[in-house]
Amino acid sequence: MFPGVIDRYREFLPVDDATPSVSLGEGTTPLVRSSSIGDSLGCRELYFKLEGCNPTGSFKDRGMVVAIAKALEAGKTRIICASTGNTSASAAAYGARYQLETLVLVPAGEIALGKLAQAMAYGARILAVNGSFDEALTTVKGIVESWDIELVNSLNPYRIEGQKTGAFEIVDDLGGAPDILCIPVGNAGNITAYWKGFKEYRGIGRIGKTPKMMGFQAAGAAPIVRGVPISNPKTIATAIRIGNPASWEQAEVARDESAGLIEMVDDNAIVEAYLRLAREEGIFCEPASAASVAGLLKLPELDVDLTGKTIVCVLTGNGLKDPGTAEKRALVELEYVEPDVVSVMNLLASGK
Ligand code: AN7
Asked: Structure pTM?
């Protein structure tokens, strides 16, 4: 049986014997070597960290499991988050398993279908707010000030603690640190968490050097790159449609301490990377995740030399989360046919 994140990395996490045992089997996700994109860029090795293989289909489970364990330890009975979708799915799953009342605030009409389906199935109470993710998060922050309910957004430090295990796994699998880590940036919790993880491994001598952190926002939702909050963020990658990231400063610290960068990629580049991953690598991730690969593909233009480098792209969420984008952007038409050999062979022979 797989240990979950807490059992695998217990010594690095703020847990002890008093912390309830919590797991849905999160973590230990595949690190898959690129079969095509890496060669086309001339790097030494390119890997994809498939965070879509987590129990609810995104990296959020790594942090949620620790946040939930600590909430239970503190005797909490309710949890709340604002979400572009994945956090709400993860909170709803752990909330259901550990009998916590779960309240999620999502921007109405702006979360991908798979994520909404999850929150519904797990039985969370879903408040669809008439506004943006940023407004939902501000509201949630106000609610937790006056009500005994545990905040499970990445402002909760236990979320960051759990998510740093993604960095540990990469190092443990590669036997060292990569030269470059490419990661999508929304609310900026994950880039903060990975940087913390790499620094902790350097601190205990597990790695000698840390990777350059390369974060990528969507061009229509790129407050860190533009240097100002965006009041009406827009991008096909709804997961990272965020105009005022909670961990803005920490993301800049990760960028600066690691001599990395935070850049932006437009929606066309995101969709192109999303389809290349699916069609050349056999990896179906959600659009926000593909921003890491769109960013990698842009690095040569930004004068970043990739020759001889070992690079990891974090693919944060599963492609099944957002069936609508595949339907709209993959541009494949179904070919209708009668269910018999002659009809199928005739259709194939017609050369269409
Ligand atoms: C697939 O679920 O913010 O920079 O509310 O779902 O740590 O925010 C999701 C973010 C990247 C960005 N990829 O990570 C939410 C939410 C996927 C995501 C991000 C998200 P952060």
From this structure: 0.97
